[in-house]
Amino acid sequence: MEGQRELLEKLKQYDTPSVTNVVATYPGDREHCLGLYHPWETGWYTDERLKCMYPELGRMAGYVVTVTFGLPDPGFDRLSFLDLYRAIEKTPKPVILAMKQDFPEEIKRKNGLCGGNMMTAFKSLGVIGVISDGPSRDLDEVRPMGMQYMLTGVCAGHGDFAIRAVNTPVEICGMMTAPGEIIHMDENGAVKFPADRLGEVEERLEKLSAHEAKKQKLLAEHHDAESLAAIMADQYK
Fold first, then answer.
1. Which of 98, 135, 185, 233 could crosslink 66 through cysteines, CB 3.0-4.6 Å?
2. Are 119 and 138 in contact (CB under 8 A)?
3. pLDDT band with cut points at 50, 70 and 90 for residue 235
4. Nearest Cα to 50, choosing from 185, 192, 170?
C-alpha cells in the first residue's frame, strides 16, 4: 500500500478542479481526460451547497468510508459507533469519511452532528477529513487537529441520533460515493473516482499540468483577441 500512499500524496499537488478535468470534465480530450463519467448526468462531484471549513489546510485525498445517520428507530438498533470504527480501521489509509445526514429537513438544518469528540476518535483511526451533506460543530476544537470539515454549514447543538448504515452508497451534495472510491477535496469542493484508477488519474494530472502551464504562459504573452481565441481553441470549441 505504500505505492498507493505515495500516489495520494502526489495528488495533493493538484487542485480539485484539475482532478475533475482528468476524471470526466472534457471527454473529447482523450489525451488528458479519462472520461470515467458523463460530465453532467452522473453524480461524481459536489455542488455549491458544500463548504470548506478550513481552506488553509489545502488539498486532501483519501479512501472512502461511508456512514448514514438518522433519528433513533426503536425497531432498528443493530449498528453502533463500534461498527463504524471497525469499518474505518479496515480501510486503507488515509480515510475520508462521507457522512450522510438522513434527517427531516427541519432537523437536518440545525443538527451539529459531528464535533470535537467524534473527530478525535476518527483521527485516531486514520481519518483526515469528513464530508457531509449537513452541518456539524466545534470548529474551534477541530481546527488544530488538521482534519478537514466539508459541510453545508455549522450550528451549535443537536439531539439524539443513530447510525442507520455503514459502508453503503451515499449521496453528498450531488456526489454519489461508496467504498472502493477515492475522494479528492479542497476549497473548490470534492470529486470522487474509483480507487483502482488512482495511478491513471495521477499520470493524466502530470500531463495536464504541463499542458495548462504552457497554455497559460501563451495566454499571458498575447494581448489580441484572435491569438487568445486560437490558444483557447483546443479546449473551448
1. 98
2. yes
3. low
4. 185
Secondary structure class of 97 (helix, strand, coil): strand
Rounded alpha-carbon distances, angstroms, from residue 102 to 133, 153, 186, 205: 9, 16, 24, 35
CA distance 148 to 139: 10
Give the pLDDT of residue 231. Answer: 86
Predicted confidence (pLDDT) per residue in 77-90, tens digit: 999 999 999 999 99
Q: Would you state the pLDDT for residue 234?
A: 73
Please say whether the beta carbons of 191 and 16 come within 8 A: yes
User: What tens digit of pLDDT does each residue of 5-24 get?
Assistant: 999 999 999 999 999 999 99
- Positive or negative, the CA dihedral 146, 147, 151, 153 is negative
Can you tell me the distance from the alpha carbon of 34 to that of 199, in angstroms, rounded to the nearest whole number?
12
What is the Cα Rg of the chain in Å? 19
54: its cell numbers: 478550513
The position carrying cell 483546443 is 234
Full DSSP string of 161-221: -EEEEESS-EEETTEEE-TTEEEEEETTEEEEEEGGGHHHHHHHHHHHHHHHHHHHHHHHH
Sign, CA dihedral 86-87-90-93, equals: negative
